[in-house]
Amino acid sequence: MLRIAIQTKGRLNEQSIELLRESGVTIKEEKRKFLMRAPDFPVEILFLRDDDIPQTVAMGAADLGIVGYNEVAERGFNVDILQKLGFGGCRISLAIPKSVEYCGLEFFNGKRIATSYPNVLQKFFTEHGITANIHTITGSVEIAPAAGLADAIFDIVSSGGTLISNGLVEVEQVLHSEAVLIGTPGLSKEKSAIAEQLMSRFESVQKGYGKKYLVLNLPTSALDDAIKILPAMRSPTVIPLAQEGWCSLQTVVDEKELWLIIEKLKAIGAEGILVLALEKIVL
Ligand code: PRT
Ligand code: ZN
Fold first, then answer.
1. Which residue has the CA at smallest separation from atom 43 of ligand 1?
2. CA 13–ligand 2 middle distance (angstroms)
């Protein structure tokens, strides 16, 4: 039995539950307790505030945890980073009021900077020879400059909308983060085996993110051109159609390139193009 800590509520909660569910670990949400046994896999889920997950995993009170890399970096506990999970992407950046001129990193010498990530910031400043006054605040860091509490902030940014609406501009991106799977160092053989199984399922689910399954009919004479257009995992599946001179082609494509690929395929005579959702890719 393995215990895995995830966020109780907040930005990573839903996607953590979804990743587990797609990996065959279901959580019955209607009667959620703070510790729940999954019925279909030897794990129990421990629901915690994200701030507490790195320490809980470092102490071994949970064997695994799903948490933002930013929290792991800030808290500094001894945990193994086992896997990047491909969601919860953000960065921690330095931002200053847009009315102020920025002259490079030296700008921050002697300045007051509000943040919830003092350790990450101190490490960055030390590495770059900057001496500043770091004010640790929890809660709405972005209002600190307008409130006269700080000259700059060091905070999480994803779309950048919060900075803009507070009259701030991002000047340095210091740390890139996403949700990661962390583990207690030195797990037992038995627990490691379950963890590995879970990680390989996570990988299959992640491989399916942003991918579509494409099925189409094509004149056989255009097959060579189609193969050049399609980025198949090995090579696309080609099935002859009952109608002479035609075949059906099936392959996986990146959602980002989907329309471009469809247009190119239509140009060489593809017909009856189906785009299907893809759940997992097990290699
Ligand atoms: O209650 P608990 O302590 O568990 O949760 P929390 O309130 O501390 O964290 P939560 O749920 O807000 O975020 C959890 C994790 O999500 C963070 O640790 C990051 O790893 C990740 N994440 C991804 C983000 C964002 N994107 C994000 N945008 N965390 C916070 N934000 C904030 C940001 O600080 C800004 O104020 O959202 C605001 C909007 O951002 P913009 O740039 O899109 O406007
Ligand atoms: Zn938190």
1. 159
2. 12
Place of tokens 């017909």: 271
In tens, the pLDDT along 121-162 reads 999 999 999 999 999 999 899 999 999 999 999 999 999 999
Q: What CA–CA distance (Å, rounded) separates 185 from 237?
A: 43
Question: Ligand 2 mean position to 88 CA, how many Å?
Answer: 13
**Same-domain check for residues 72 and 146:** no
Q: For the domain that residue 242 is a member of, what is the CATH number?
A: 3.30.70.120
Q: What are 93-114's pLDDT values in tens digits?
A: 999 999 999 999 999 999 999 9
Q: How far is the CA of 86 from the centre of ligand 1 (A)?
A: 15
Shared domain check, 172 and 94: yes
Residues within 5 Å of ion ligand 2, judged at the Cβ atom: 50-51
Could you give the CA distance from residue 278 to residue 282 in angstroms, rounded to a whole number? 11
User: Which tokens in the block code for residue 252?
Assistant: 């996986």
| Rg of the chain taking only CA atoms, in angstroms | 24
Q: Would you say 70 and 156 are in contact if contact means Cβ atoms under 8 Å apart?
A: yes
- 66 and 128 share one domain: no
- Whole-angstrom distance, CA of residue 192 vs CA of residue 53: 19
Q: The domain containing residue 271 runs over which residues?
A: 210-277
Cα of 49 vs centre of ligand 2, distance in Å, is 6
What is the pTM assigned to this prediction?
Answer: 0.89
Tokens 């991918």 belong to residue: 211
Spatial separation of the C-alpha atoms in residues 10 and 13, rounded to whole Å:
6
Using CB distances shorter than 6 Å, the residues near ligand 1 are 7, 10-12, 49-51, 68, 70-71, 88, 90, 142, 155-162, 177
In DSSP terms, 253 is beta-bridged to: 212
Phi then psi dihedrals of residue 138, to 5 deg: -105, 155
Task: Return the bridge partners of 247, or none.
Answer: 218, 240
